Amino acid sequence: MNENLEKITAFIEEHHVLTLATAVENEVSACSLFYAFDAKSNSFIVASSEDTLHIEHIHQNSKVAGNILLETKEVGKIQGLQFRGVFTVLEDAKLKALYFKTFPYALALAPKLWQIKVDFFKLTDNRLGFGKKLIYKSASV
């Protein structure tokens, strides 16, 4: 695994909520979603219902962006991840199992699961030096 991707994955695995941004024409949306992460496929697995603005957007434009951050006022500890990818209905049974292993209480809600296949990550990590950025782009980008 790429060294930057290893550090990015370690950051992702320390958290469980991401902010997702979507856009269609001049309308934008942002929301927070709990996630499970699969490092093999560079995918976030999330749950969301069809009757949300961000899912309405996804049906028209599956390209998304988002972020995960460590909230701190200590400049030397600032960490934040930006990502871009494609948002699709989750079909993979192993990834569904990963989500329910991470959030077992969600089984009772029987949510619709989705996959965000990430093709770009940028992690800012001030612990490595002020403004230090680690970038990973998938070969398909």
List the helices and strands and how they pair.
Layout: H1 3-13, E1 17-24, E2 27-38, E3 43-47, H2 53-60, E4 63-70, E5 79-89, H3 93-102, E6 113-125, E7 133-137
Antiparallel strand pairs: 1-2, 1-4, 2-3, 3-6, 4-5, 5-6, 6-7
Overall description:
This protein is α+β, with helices and mostly antiparallel strands. It has a single domain (3-137), classed as Pnp Oxidase, Chain A, CATH 2.30.110.10. The protein has helices at 3-13, 53-60, 93-102, and strands at residues 17-24, 27-38, 43-47, 63-70, 79-89, 113-125, 133-137. Strands 1-2-3-6-5-4 form a six-stranded antiparallel beta barrel.
Describe the structure concisely for a colleague.
The protein is of the alpha+beta class. The chain has three helices and seven strands; from the N terminus they run αβββαββαββ.
Key terms for this structure?
141 residues, alpha+beta, Pnp Oxidase, Chain A, six-stranded antiparallel barrel, 7 strands, globular
Instruction: Assign the CATH superfamily.
Output: Electron Transport, Fmn-binding Protein, Chain A
Number of strands: 7
Structural class: alpha+beta
Give the helix level as a range of percent: 10-25%
Discrete helix count: 3
SSE run: HEEEHEEHEE
CATH topology: Pnp Oxidase, Chain A
Overall spatial form: globular
CATH class: Mainly Beta
Distance between the termini: 17 Å
Mean pLDDT: 93
Oligomer: single chain
Q: How are strands sequenced across the largest beta sheet? A: 1-2-3-6-5-4
For the largest beta-sheet, the strand count, sense and barrel status come to: 6 strands, antiparallel, barrel
State the domain count.
1
Strand content: 35-45%
Cα-atom Rg, whole angstroms?
A: 15 Å
